[in-house]
Amino acid sequence: MQRDSSLSGLLSALNPHQLEAVTHGDGPLLVLAGAGSGKTRVLTHRIAWLVLEGRAEPGEILALTFTNKAAREMSMRVEELLGGSLKGAWVGTFHSIALRILRRHGSLLPVGPDFTVYDALDQKRLAKEVAKELSIDSKKIKPQALLAAVSRMKDDGLREGDIDPPGDTSSQYARALYKFYILYQKRLRQAAALDFGDLLVALLELFDRNPEIADTYGRRFKYLLVDEYQDTNRVQYLFAKKLSEVWGNITVVGDDDQSIYGWRGANIRNILDFEGTFPGTSVVRLEQNYRSTKPILNAASSVIAKNKGRHVKTLWTEREGGDPVVLNAADSEGEEAQWIGERIMDLTATGYRLGEIAVLYRTHALSRPIEDELIQRGIEYAIFGGLRFYERQE
Ligand SMILES: Nc1ncnc2c1ncn2[C@@H]1O[C@H](COP(=O)(O)OP(=O)(O)O)[C@@H](O)[C@H]1O
Ligand SMILES: [Mg+2]
Known about the structure:
Elements: H1 2-12, H2 16-22, E1 29-33, H3 39-52, E2 61-65, H4 68-82, E3 90-93, H5 94-104, E4 116-118, H6 120-133, H7 143-155, H8 172-190, E5 193-195, H9 196-209, H10 211-220, E6 223-226, H11 234-243, E7 250-254, H12 269-272, H13 274-277, E8 282-286, H14 294-304, H15 333-349, H16 367-376, H17 386-391
Parallel strand pairs: 1-7, 1-8, 2-3, 2-6, 4-5, 6-7
Helix pairs in contact: 1-3, 2-3, 3-4, 5-9, 6-7, 6-8, 7-8, 7-9, 9-10, 9-11, 15-16
The structure holds adenosine-5'-diphosphate and magnesium ion (MG).
């Protein structure tokens, strides 16, 4: 009785396409949708549905998110829906799940069981040391850039040994990068450390060398679900593929129009090629948007329509009204800032709170004139940093 009522309550909160995705039986499922169309909602409801329907014990579920905050929210939300505990399920970021498995099998790792994990600061410090040791001129080639290139290669699954040694005709940069990668890894080994990008690579190696371990996890996790699939990189894709091999029950949700992590190795092909990689995939499109009004959606759609390599989707919303989108071409950054300042004053005069207003800009270098303008007008504001904006409160 209890179970039936929570099931019908669960399903009544969904639109027909969301319902289809949530109650999809077995086999691979690709949910394609724009921002604000309920992708994460589909995942939380699907996890709850799998448990309430008795298709899986919590311990047979693995859900992968992009930030720790998103993982915590997902667990909490599912427990609310279940009206009970999700204990035993693994809900976490790719990195945290990889780390968890690596820790359990530490004695089988080349780095040993007591490895430490280098965070961004440790990595930066080591990168500087290594560049210095190699006498790389940091004015010409920044250690940070070499580090980023190395991380990128790891995200693509390229180890130091996979890279061809540079020849006589190679650029100075290619030679520096090669030497850097090798020494950087050597220093990590000496410190018995893995950096962030190493975690998934090390895990895939563990699985390769010990197929029975991969098999144990593959068997355990009957259902694997991935949020923000458009932002996965190659090693994350390989990990998800490996763990879903036994049951084939992989559900991913994503938007091929909003990959924000291209610069750090996200591979949009993962989502575009999903149907080819996972035979028998069912595809569900969520096209109803719950966040934005029509004018905003129309403007966004006409820009997105020009993206190359995308699945076609048509977004719509029931949210009537809303002001049209205004395009203002200013002659200088000062004028642009002034215009922004005036708009904010207009908005607050008509009753909007400052907390409801956001100013987006492309890079931090552009914030200066805007900040000057806001300060001059006595408008209070808070700045959010790029990465930190997405990973804040972690
Ligand atoms: N069927 C629905 N009925 C009412 N609100 C919904 C529905 N689906 C999604 N929403 C709301 O839309 C917003 C965006 O949902 P979310 O799952 O975060 O979308 P996405 O992950 O696609 O960006 C949330 O506030 C969510 O509660
Ligand atoms: Mg989401």
